[in-house]
Amino acid sequence: MIDINDFINNRIKPLNITESIADAQDLFAEYTFSHFPVTENGIYIGCASSEDTELMDIEKTLEDMHYTLERFFVRDTTIWLDVLEVFAKNETNVVPILDKDNNYLGYYEITDIIQFFHQTPFLKEDGGILVVQKGITDYSMSEVAQIVESNNGRLLGLFISEANLEKVQITLKISLGGLSEIIQTFRRYNYDIISEHQEDAYINTLKDRSDYLDKYLNI
């Protein structure tokens, strides 16, 4: 599998704090970046956002907007899931990368990290997607895995895809085994099935026809 560090990008040099706002605006006009790293004497000091830069006087320099710079970054040792989290939390498509000594190494682009995600077994291997839901205090990851594996399924990955104070939704990628048996076991353990499946569609069709027949017989 590709290493996430293979996606460290230095195609475009970081903006320097002494550069003009006009230079920064030109960069954002040429590339579809939401943010871009800014350095001072080679040290990363934050990210300028395209929106903030657009509002500034072109005669000024990036130093005049230093108070608006956003300080997010990742380390070159940060795992890819945590990198994705930084992208999401900061609503950005570029994340700067620093080493343990805070030296600027380059940046990740969101399209590259999504490509990396596509190389994981969760997306690359064939299998079925199942979304289940249960009370926030009632679910157990070990129980979820046990349900899949007890039905001869192989779990390729799972994550909490939605949660609130009452419920939690878990998305699973499952290879092998009978998905219908897995679904029925989840129901026996009081999990709601959120995703739609062919087996459920067949059961719903039978139910609809049964309801229609009952209605017809009662006329």
From TrEMBL:
InterPro entries per UniProt: Aldolase_TIM (IPR013785), CBS_dom (IPR000644), CBS_dom_sf (IPR046342)
Protein's UniProt keywords contain Transmembrane: no
Source species, domain of life: Bacteria
Keywords from the named record: CBS domain
Residue stretches making up the CBS domain: 6-52, 73-117
Keyword tRNA-binding on entry: no
Name of protein: CBS domain-containing protein
Organism: Flavobacterium rhizophilum
